[in-house]
UniProtKB/TrEMBL annotation:
Region listing for Disordered, in residue ranges: 147-172
Record field: transmembrane: 12-29, 35-54, 75-96, 102-121
Lineage of producing organism: Bacteria, Bacillati, Actinomycetota, Actinomycetes, Micrococcales
Protein name in UniProt: Uncharacterized membrane protein YvlD (DUF360 family)
Organism of this sequence: Microbacterium murale
Compositional bias of kind Low complexity: 147-168
Keyword annotations of the record: Membrane, Transmembrane, Transmembrane helix
Amino acid sequence: MKKWTVRAVSLYVFNVVVLLLIGLLMSSVSVGWNALWAAVILTVATLALKPTLLKVFRGAAAKSAQTRTNVGEKVVQYGLVFIVELVVWVLTVWLSGVDVRGWFWGYVLPPLYLLIAWVIYDLVDDRIETKAGAVFDTVQSKVKGGRTSTTAASDAGASAGQGAATAAGREELDDGLTPEQRRMLNEL
């Protein structure tokens, strides 16, 4: 649950920034305070709708893949991703207060900006989610009453154990289990 919460919140913040940048860079798109609600729609569409649409479109395109050249297949794949971005953008505009003027400048160009932004997010999402997870843990510990000396000591021990867990995680076999998990499974 924490992983999905951290991912959704970090993507939401990223989407707010991207929507504000689109509003600043394009005179045909007016975002303003609507970026807060539009980012909710954009985040939900990105997490839920985008994978489903890509799967459906790629499945349909795969039926005729053997008749295309390699270059043609790449063009089709990029076109499918753009169509999905376009659907997500249109839904965001319709369900939020984002004001769009002009067909090309308002509906065709912003999905390209979203695509570039999501490529950037994909490159840095692990670091963003790690930082957001640390912030989430800090806030959660403060909400639960702060740290005591025993919890700080146990956290220090857990941090030392995480290094060993990471090393053990690298020793995974093709079954995806760590040595510790494999030992526990064998004991059952």
